[in-house]
From TrEMBL:
Membrane topology reported for the UniProt record: Multi-pass membrane protein
One GO location term (cellular component): plasma membrane
Residue ranges of the TM segments: 37-58, 78-97, 117-137
Stored Pfam families: 7tm_1
UniProt keyword list: Cell membrane, G-protein coupled receptor, Membrane, Receptor, Transducer, Transmembrane, Transmembrane helix
Protein's name in the database: Gonadotropin releasing hormone receptor
Gene name, Swiss-Prot/TrEMBL: GNRHR
Recorded GO MF terms: G protein-coupled peptide receptor activity; protein-hormone receptor activity
Length: 177
């Protein structure tokens, strides 16, 4: 019983979504025509994005298999692989979540799942943006300092690791609302 009163006194983002308006049978939210159009477009883009990102990952995998033993994949291909994985993660999390939100019009899955999916949604939105920054920095350094950057694989690994790490850390506050 105390849990109910404490959540009412200090509502989080998720609990505010779950109990923001008491629903009366005649006043239930409904899916409008514009909502149906948004859902249709979202799921169409989901299918296109999933197909294209997955096919590009498969193409990168084939390039990796064709490489001779001992030769590593080029820096740009490694960075493109990380960017494609980040885009695929965003596609698989954000688009279905938004589509289902538009269909149901309200949240039914509970507080814990709301926090987990909110975290994953933010994480998957930060990751592609940070990967673009990493690619931009890498290309900038390749132009301004071509010789030192060419042989520095640790820099590439640390920048991609930092991008994934920052995405994870910056999405964390979503769980403490």
């Amino acid at each position: 019983m105390q849990d109910d009163t404490s959540s009412e006194q200090n509502p989080t983002h998720c609990s505010a979504i779950n109990s923001s308006v008491p629903l009366v049978q005649g006043a239930l939210p409904t899916l409008t025509l514009s909502g149906k159009i948004r859902v249709t477009v979202t799921f169409f883009l989901f299918l296109v994005s999933t197909t294209l990102n997955a096919s590009f990952l498969l193409k990168l995998q084939k390039w990796t298999q064709k490489k001779e033993k001992g030769k590593k994949l080029s820096r740009m291909k490694v960075l493109l692989k990380h960017l494609t994985l980040a885009n695929l993660l965003e596609t698989l999390i954000v688009m279905p979540l938004d589509g289902m939100w538009n269909i149901t019009v309200q949240w039914y899955a509970g507080e814990l799942l709301c926090k987990i999916l909110s975290y994953l949604k933010l994480f998957s939105m930060y990751a592609p943006a940070f990967m673009m920054v990493v690619i931009s920095l890498d290309r900038s350094m390749a132009i301004t300092r071509p010789l030192p950057v060419q042989s520095n694989r640790k820099l590439e690994q640390s920048m991609t690791g930092l991008a994934w790490g920052l995405s994870s850390v910056l999405a964390g506050p979503q769980n403490y609302n």
